[in-house]
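Sync notes, pocket subgroup
Present: LS, DG
LS reminded everyone that the earlier model was apo-only. Rerun requested with WTA included. Inputs:
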Amino acid sequence: MPDIETLLHEKRVFKPSSEFAKRANWSKKTTNEYRKLGAKSPERFWAKMAREYVTWFTPWKQVLRWKPPFARWFVGGKLNVSYNCLDRHLEGENAWRRNKAAILWEGEPGDSRTLTFAELHREVCKFANVLKDLGVKKGDRVALYMPMIPELAIAMLACTRIGAPHSIVFGGFSAEALRDRINDAGARTVVTADGGFRRGKSVLLKAAVDEALTGAPGVENVVVVRRTGDPVAMQSGRDRWWHDVMAEASAKCPPAKLDSEHPLFILYTSGTTGKPKGVLHTTGGYLTHVASTSHAIFDLKEDDTFWCTADIGWVTGHSYVVYGILANGATTVMYEGAPTHPGPDRLWSIVEKYGVTVFYTAPTAIRTFVRLGDEHPKKHDLSSLRLLGTVGEPINPEAWMWYHRVIGGRRCPIVDTWWQTETGGILITPLPAAVNTKPGSATLAFPGIAADVYTEEGVPVRPSDGGFLVLTKPWPGMLRGIWGDPQRYREQYWSKFENIYFAGDGAHRDRQGYFWIMGRIDDVMNISGHRLGTMEVESALVSHEDVAEAAVVGRPDDLTGTAIVAFVTPKGGIRVDGELVGTLRDHVAHQIGAIAKPADIRFTDALPKTRSGKIMRRLLRDIASGRETVGDTTTLEDYSVLARLRESDET
Ligand code: WTA
C-alpha cells in the first residue's frame, strides 16, 4: 500500500469553530458521553438512539440477538418507515411541518417541484394503494428503475408503507443488468419512467425495461411515469401509466405495523465474483442507524436544506437522500441530471437557488470541479453552506483543502464519511462539533461502532502499519444477508476472521487512532465512487463472441479514482483494430452499463498466469499503471507474455 507513506505526512489539523460547536446537535460533551456509553455497551447506546430517533408502534423486547454472523436488532419491535418519514411530521407537536418542504426537486432542464410533507404523504398513500391494487403483498419485491424524480422517493416510501421490499436498480445500468436483478429478487412488479434527462438527452428507461422483460417472465405489472415525453410501447394488461392509476387511487392507507426485522430493501452491489449480490437491509435497525447518524453527523436542524448529490440508485441515496433525512423531518434536495449540465456551475447554481446549508458529495465530483476551475463556484453565492461532507472513496488531501477553501469558504466543517452498501449507514466519520479533522482521514468510528485494522493474523496492527479494515461487533444498520445466498454472506464477510466483519478495504490508524482508508484490497474497483467487480467486467467481455479470455484491473486515475483497464485475448483469426475496441466497450456498456466501459483495452495473445493457472493480476496492475514490475515472477507460466504485454498497444 504505497499511499500510506504520502498520507503519513499529512499534518494539518482543523478544529471545529466555537461558533459551529455552540449550536451543534451533538456537542463535544454529548459526543464524548455517547462514545463512552457506546464503548461500554453498544446495545445500550443503540437502544438510546432507537428511542430517540424512531417512533415504534410496539417496543422491542431485546436490543440484539447475535448468532454470528446473523444479527437481529430490536427484536419484537414493530414500526413503519414511511410512518417515521411522513406521518409523524403531520401530527402532535410536529404538525406544523405539514406545509414544510420535504423534497425540493430540480429537473435537469431547469423545471422544479416542491413536495411538502403533507403532499408527499398523500402521494405515498396513493401509490401504496396502487401497489396493493396490483396485488403487491407484504414481503413481495418491487423493482424500481427510475430517474431522479420525486416519484422514485414516492415509490420507495409506498413500498415501505405496505412492507414490500424495494430493489432499486440504478438508471445507468443496462437492460441486461436490470433483468438479472429482477430475476434474482423475484420481483413481479416494476416501476419505471419513459426516460430521464441526462446531459440534455433522454435516457430511455422504459425501452430498457421492455428489453429486460423479454427474459423476466415473472414480471406481471409495470407502472410507467411520464417524464420526458418520449414515445413508449405500452403492453396492454402489463403496463400502466402512473398518472392513470394514481388518478383513481385513494389517499387513505394506514401504515403496516412491521416487524423490526422485516425486509426493507435489497440493493445489488458488486463483489469479487461475476454476479452482483443482493444486499439485504431490514427495518428497525437500519432506520435507527440512518436517522441518528443524519442528525448527529449532518447536524440537521429544522431550517436546514440538505443536499446529497448521490443518485438514489446507490446506497448513499437510499440512506441520505431519503430515509435518514426525512426521518428527521428535514428538507432534502433532489437533482435529476448531470452535475456539469448545461454548464460547469450547475451544482453551485442549485446551492444558491435553494440556499443549501449542508452539502454531501463524492471526491470524484470534487476533483472534477477542481479541474474545471474556481471561477464556476465563485460565480455563485455559496454563503448559505455551513457543513460539507464526502463519501464513496478516499479523498486526497489537496481535494479536501480545495473543498474547504473554495466551497466551504474556510468556515464549514468537512465530514469525510466511510461506509458501504453493506453497512447501511455511516460508520467512520468526524462529528462536526467534537472531532478535529485531518484532510484525507475519515477520523474515528461513530459511537457504538467497533472498528479496527487487523493484520493478516487477525490482530490489531501497530500504529501506522497498514492492514484490513474490520468491524468487531454487530451494528444496527448492518446487512442481514445476501438475498438467497447465506453461504456467500458467510464467506464474503465473516470468514477471513472468525465472527469479525471484513470490509474489503485497506486502512491504517495514526497515533491518535484516526482511520486512513486506503481503498479496496479485493477485486472490487471503485470507479468514481461506484463499485464494480473486475470479474463482472471480465464476464461481460468474454460473453462477446470475439473474445477468448479477458482480465480486468484498475489503474489510478486523477479524476475517477480508478480507471478500468482490460487485457483481452481475442479468438483466433479475429482482427484486432480500433473498431474491435469500440465494439467491446459498447458490449460491456450493453451488458452492465456505461460506467463499466473500460478506459483502455489492450490486446494480447496470452495472459500472465501462475503454474496453477491463476491470472497474475498484480503484474497486470503494474503494467496498466505504467509501473515497472517488481517482485517474484518465477511462477509465471510464460515469461515472454509479460514482455509482450508491456509492448502491447495502449488503445
Ligand atoms: C469506499 C458507498 C474512503 C470504500 C457508501 C468502501 C470510502 C466502498 C469512503 C463502498 C470514504 C466509501 N473514504 N473510502 N469516506 N466511503 N468508501 O458500497 O472502498 O458504493 O468499501 O458504498 O467505497 O462503496 P459503496
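DG: The radius of gyration is 24 Å.
LS: The pocket of WTA is lined by residues 269, 314-316, 391-394, 416-421, 442, 503-505, 517, 519-520, 526, 531 (CB under 6 Å).
Action: DG to write up.
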